[in-house]
Amino acid sequence: MKLIDAAGREHHAVAPPEAAPRIVSLVPSITELLCDLGLAHRLAGRTGFCVHPADTVRTIAKVGGTKNVNLDKIRALAPTHLIVNIDENEKPTVDALAGFIPNIIVTHPKGPRDNPALYRLLGGIFGAGERAEQLCAIFEREYAALAAVAEPAPKTVLYCIWKDPWMTVSRDTYIAQMLALIGWRHWVAADPAEADCRYPKFNWSQELTDAVDEVLLSTEPYRFTEAHADALERQLGKPVQLVDGEMLSWYGSRAINGLRYLRNLALTSGGSSAPACG
Questions:
Q1: What contacts 85, CB < 8 A, 6 or more positions away?
Q2: Domains along the chain?
Q3: What is the value of pTM for the model shown?
Q4: Residue range 122-160, pLDDT digits in tens
Q5: Rounded to an integer, what distance in angstroms lies between the CA atom of residue 12 and that of residue 61?
């Protein structure tokens, strides 16, 4: 099987003299996936947002954020491989890092069905193919369990990721594709300038409120709380639900729990608060 990343670049399984790769991950969900693939000991660096699994990543050097990366810190770590994501990391930064890191692996899962290929890509490159196949099997089992759940009544939702200014997601994002698995269609901005954005800004209006059945407030990147949800529900007169942003936006191994979380959302749809992840 060819190991081709999201940039169309072919990679090869590590072999001497890179049999002990040193990996820097600039993607929180990828850092977690590498750990679940049994590759934590190969991680030389991670961002400050790479917080899972907490006990494991605590000892891995931080190299800044996903956007404000410290190039000097990364250079000092002498990595053989860098893992980035098209949405999360800025191209000029990645280009600068490519000047001294020999292997750049670009990821860009567009929907939940892209996860098994991601497991196999990283497992194949770093000699964790068996564990990757185990994760694929677990993912497929959870995907089938979700598909077996009777879909709730279709509805249009607005998934909020930020306030001041208010921001949401477009239908071509991973988040919207996750929600679509349970028949929740995401709202589309009427303004063409915003409709073409992956993360459009919006203003509350009666037209918008009338167009959606429910508002979802994500716990990340903005830290929305139940207090925000209660206040907005009173303001709009529409159901507003706080949802776990990690479960709906993190791909990699977290997507397995994300599918379980979606199943709970589907089973309890119509409630006013997010269910616990099962």
A1: 26, 27, 30, 106, 107, 108
A2: 3-144 (3.40.50.1980), 151-267 (3.40.50.1980)
A3: 0.93
A4: 999 999 999 999 999 999 999 999 999 866 678 999 999
A5: 26
